[in-house]
């Protein structure tokens, strides 16, 4: 009995500790969202461009000039991506048409729901089922009212999120530029601080981190491009409307692990 009580005590306080640690982590992430965003964007930029900068350096281009060229190439790719959403390519029209089609999709869903109700009307007329449905509808109505009341706060939060993201990306571009220029020197200084006895360990960590982190970021971006293009082509072949917009959405959402 004492052993069972001790185990229950440990389980309860382990759960409490996990909850407290999770809450503290969420609180810290919320406070440090901009610094964490700067760190993440910096890592993405450095790992995406370090290969280009290193190749240019191997061909005799100084690292500052190579970094500038890599940044120009990155901005050119981003500009081309945004231009693809222009009216010249028709992607923007597809996104607009997709948004305008949402009411039609809702009507189709309502029609399907009405058909289901007509097919199983004897079940839905049951008092218990009607009680559950009324409670669900009431809860949905309350949630919609809460969203309507908090819409102003939500708009402010979205605006703050956009501003914070812009700040994080701006600082990340500056920091990543400096890191790309000084990357060899930073590596040598890290080795010097670690000492000769830890050189092999540091080499192993460097190679592992570079391959894992850099490979994951590059592989994810390449995978997103392939999946987005493949989905767009297959949607077009299948005759699905707004195929390009849906392909782009599929590619972007593939970033989520």
Q: Which structural traits does this protein have?
A:
257 residues, 10 helices
Strand content: under 5%
In angstroms, what is the radius of gyration?
A: 27 Å
Q: What global shape is seen?
A: flat
Structural class: mainly alpha
Report the average pLDDT across residues: 78
The percent range for helix content is over 70%
What are the secondary-structure elements, in order, as H or E?
HHHHHHHHHH
Task: Compute the separation of the termini in Å.
Answer: 45 Å
Count every beta strand, where a strand is a DSSP E run of 2 or more residues. 0
Total count of helical runs of at least 4 residues: 10
Main pleated-sheet profile: none
Name the poorly predicted regions: none
Short description:
Helix content is 88%, strand content 0%. The protein is built from ten helices and no strands.
Describe this structure in words.
By secondary structure, the protein is mostly helical. The protein is built from ten helices and no strands. It has helices spanning 2-31, 33-58, 63-83, 91-100, 102-119, 121-124, 127-149, 151-194, 199-237, 243-253. The longest helix is centred in the last third of the chain and has 44 residues, at 151-194. The radius of gyration is 27 Å and the shape is flat. The mean pLDDT is 78.
Summarize the topology.
Elements: H1 2-31, H2 33-58, H3 63-83, H4 91-100, H5 102-119, H6 121-124, H7 127-149, H8 151-194, H9 199-237, H10 243-253
Helix pairs in contact: 2-3, 2-8, 3-8, 4-10, 9-10
């Amino acid at each position: 009995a004492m052993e069972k009580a001790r185990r229950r005590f440990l389980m309860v306080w382990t759960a409490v500790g996990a909850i407290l640690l999770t809450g503290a982590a969420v609180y810290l992430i919320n406070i440090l969202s901009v610094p964490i965003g700067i760190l993440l964007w910096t890592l993405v930029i450095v790992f995406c461009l370090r290969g280009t900068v290193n190749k240019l350096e191997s061909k005799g281009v100084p690292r500052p000039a190579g970094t500038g060229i890599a940044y120009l190439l990155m901005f050119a790719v981003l500009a081309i991506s945004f231009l693809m959403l222009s009216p010249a390519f028709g992607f923007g029209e597809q996104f607009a048409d997709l948004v305008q089609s949402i009411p039609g999709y809702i009507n189709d869903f309502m029609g399907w729901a009405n058909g289901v109700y007509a097919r199983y009307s004897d079940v839905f007329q049951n008092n218990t089922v009607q009680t559950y449905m009324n409670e669900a509808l009431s809860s949905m109505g309350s949630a919609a009212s809460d969203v309507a009341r908090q819409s102003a706060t939500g708009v402010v939060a979205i605006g703050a999120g956009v501003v914070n993201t812009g700040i994080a990306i701006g600082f990340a571009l500056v920091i990543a530029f400096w890191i790309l220029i000084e990357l060899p020197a930073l590596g040598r200084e890290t080795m010097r601080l670690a000492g000769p006895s830890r050189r092999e360990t540091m080499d192993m960590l460097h190679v592992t981190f570079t391959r894992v982190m850099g490979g994951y970021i590059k592989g994810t971006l390449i995978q997103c491009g392939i999946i987005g293009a493949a989905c767009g082509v297959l949607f077009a072949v299948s005759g699905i409307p707004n195929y390009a917009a849906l392909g782009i959405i599929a590619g972007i959402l593939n970033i989520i692990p």
